[in-house]
């Protein structure tokens, strides 16, 4: 939680500093950070907060955003949807931040999104998710199903066979992602031999493992969320299930391959836009900077990388718009050339959906839980929303769409 | 052959659910069922057992000893909590909700801050066996044996030892027990410690099969409370049969329609039982016997 007296003091310090340096009244740019620093999701999201702190520190050391320092207003949302609503109101109304970085679970994003709409704020959702949010008040820097599944599933079907079993967390993320899996498996000539939705917080999987064995799939798509559900891997390993796995969400978020004893995640394939094992100069530099500031960070995950890059995206938007005003920022987005080089590759904002293109890396966990990258796909666009008819440069429906509930056609 | 495999797989799933319900509920049955303390920190005693046993195993202790160490550590933690927080609240059961909830939050967040978001597991020992096209984890069978063994030991402890007698006497009529020369404070403390230790045992036993995070206790709470509420105050006439009935419901529904159906089934069962048997299964049995 924030320490009011200390943050007030540092705000004052920054104000004085800024005033002295630039001799004008441009105060700091305030960035709200609503992330789960406790509760079931904390494991995957503490790194996001650290990444934002790292980026803010770098930007401030290099002169801030357009000469104005960047100030963070942090709240711990406790993996609790009602906290998101409470703190989203607080940062927009009382703290009057210029933009908010918020949210891990899709349930929490849908909980706070109407509040961002109500106050016409700007929120960055720096998380991979099930896709489909067509909302001018949101910029999504995480990867979406058409980026992760349209690459992953054809590879898996070609490598291991056409029979697919999905286990997914039972809320909007898991349900909609499972729908994507169903569609893309069918498009690639595969067959769904089973599908099971697991309530959040469930930690015992004996019967699920047996259901999977009974259905005899060639591989299992795991869309498990939260630390309780990740017990699945240990239990499937102990029961010698021994099936290849594919995921858009595991490894890249919850670093299950670091937490469980080998070989329980053997032959897990995940499409990620970043994990710390990526062997590129940009990635190595990011890891070195991150560990220098946070030596005890257990793992630098995909969402930490997205959050870090998002701060730089925001910096570019504000500097080019010469304003933190949402309408001015969106004029810059509409030009269609807002890109940064993130730790995992180039990321460009798509004006129609305000989602981001990514380099998608295929991460393969081996028997000893090291990670290798059999292939990668460059500049994969978040194309689905635009093709389906969402165009934020024309209209702002502020809706979330799914393949079975697409935008109404612009007839 | 197929029928045999089908029966075996159902028995395995039943045993697995039964073991989880019994082990998660035993400690709560002592603290909530017997002593009447609504212990919302039950999950944190489980987490304590899991963390201590895993750390002990990492330090080189053999797994069975590490599990015992986890149970003992949770038991000692329980006695300290009883002494510091619970003792003034025996006549105020509703206040125990707030007090233990507070303990739960302090411990969860404290663990997160001090030990970080997760602990590396030790891995499930003993491998697997195959029967009729399905493979099963050997360790899960050991958990079933441990559940039955725990019930048997508890039964012996409460019916055949002097501590068991004094404990039951103290909890039934504390002032008479005190008048007869029983150190009731000590008995309360030991009984609470026993409950916490049983929770720690559950944590130690399940630690190799689970993700080790500060919030891990929460995933035991629903099952533990459902079992104790359905069972009523008596561990042997209540918890054991309640766990058996709920395990049949859970295994059958999960096998048929997946995890969601299993969870719904458990909760519907508890609603029905509270409606028909407000004092749980053991309340019903004891009333008929009386």
Automatic annotation (TrEMBL), chain A:
Keywords: Signal. It comes from the Bacteria. Residues 1-23 form the signal peptide. Residues 28-368 form the Leucine-binding protein domain. PANTHER family: ALIPHATIC AMIDASE EXPRESSION-REGULATING PROTEIN, PTHR47628. Belongs to the leucine-binding protein family. This is Urea ABC transporter substrate-binding protein. The lineage of its organism: Bacteria, Pseudomonadati, Pseudomonadota, Alphaproteobacteria, Rhodobacterales.
TrEMBL record, chain B:
It is a multi-pass membrane protein. One of its GO terms (molecular function) is transmembrane transporter activity. It comes from the Bacteria. GO terms for cellular component: plasma membrane. The chain crosses the membrane at residues 17-40, 61-86, 98-116, 137-158, 186-208, 220-248, 260-277. Keywords: Amino-acid transport, Cell membrane, Membrane, Transmembrane, Transmembrane helix, Transport. It is found in: Cell membrane. GO terms for biological process: amino acid transport. Belongs to the binding-protein-dependent transport system permease family. LivHM subfamily. This is Branched-chain amino acid ABC transporter permease.
